[in-house]
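Researcher: First entry.
Model:
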Amino acid sequence: MMMDAPPRPDLTLTPPAAAAVRMAYQGARTILEYGSGGSTVLAADLGKTITSVECDPAWAAKMRAWFAANPPKGEVTLHAVDIGPVGEWAHPVDETG
């Protein structure tokens, strides 16, 4: 049974920060980011090569599902890393990781 893709990740930045990221990404060929989401989708939509390091395994799965259902124009590499239990915005919930 095929599951629906999650909704498109939002670019959760202030308008000035979002504009700065767009400008920087437009001029880049390759992008490395810590944390995936709306900026990852933006880079992929621009046809960029992007590597994203994600420490929330549930969010990484949602991002992979998004890109599986919405093939990117660019090359996306998503590295899910285990830093131990995480809470909101992938902040560690303790010091076990």
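Researcher: Second entry.
Model:
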Amino acid sequence: MVMTPQRRVLLEELKSSLDHPSADELLERVRRRLPRTSLATVYRNMELMASLGLVRKLKGKRGRAHFDGRMEPHHHMRCALCGRFFDLPHEVEGLSIELPGEICGNKVLDWNLEILVECSLCRGGN
């Protein structure tokens, strides 16, 4: 993959982000630096980078794609009301999950835990 200016800025914006933006949200951020970037460019490049394992693609509310630049193993909470994604802290009291390398004769390559929540923002908290 050739690192075009658009791809470089997309990766920089995503990696510096604490949230899990949609393509529309990424476009808004990228246009501050590259005003002529199109939504098609964002989708095409994010799909490519996800297929190469450079970013994670998350399936949000109503199938809307969100992207995560944090590639180390971690899991997510997704708000059932607003669709926002949040990283699940590594140390969640009472939650311990470890998978073996093989399940029912199948080699485990990767796995993802997503907990559906009602976030504090939707509940009127901070």
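Model: Note on the second entry: The beta strands are 56-59, 65-68, 75-79, 85-88, 102-103, 106-107, 114-117.
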